[in-house]
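In this section we walk through a basic example: taking a raw amino acid sequence and producing a predicted 3D structure, encoded as discrete structure tokens. The instruction is simple. Fold the sequence below.
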Amino acid sequence: VDALPSLLACLPASSLLLLGLVPSARADRYVQVVRLVLPILAAAALASGCLVAGTVAAHGPWNTALWQWHQPVPVTLGVYVDGLTSVMLVLISFLGLVNVRYADRYLDREAHQGRFLKWLSFTLGAVLWLVIARNLVLFTAAWPPPVADPLSRALLGTLGGPEEVFDQPAGRLAAAGRHGAHVPLLRNHGV
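The resulting token sequence is shown next.
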């Protein structure tokens, strides 16, 4: 199989990873650009996943070497795509696009929205690379634990604490529902 199907699988994942490598301060400063670019990249990943699934259905699986070392130990980094991989690409990119669209709306005007979106982009790109990895070397390089610590810090540090979470309109509504504030409303209506 020629290089085009491999590019279809690699390019969106690499683009999402690159957006995730933008420094946090710059992502926060240019949050409008991140908000514009990330949904486009997530939609491109979904379209690419659908094209990869179609290619696999039409021509079968492929195994492509992207980079080879021969000394001192032979190592080959590449992409392996079959039916399961293509289904996983479509599912992960679809869920990623849903998460991106939700986070874009929910975190609107949040101080560190750019930082959150950049880490979301990095995580989505890493998981897509994890799915298409040809061998354990690339699989290990894309594995989420190296991503998990900075991601959890970024996600937990995005909102300062519970009081800031509940200052958000949806957060206040969730807090009211969780703490029983809806009960007096129901009693006033005869329920």
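Looking at the output, two observations stand out. Confidence is low (pLDDT under 50) at residues 159-163, 171-191. The radius of gyration is 21 Å. In the next section we compare this with other chains.
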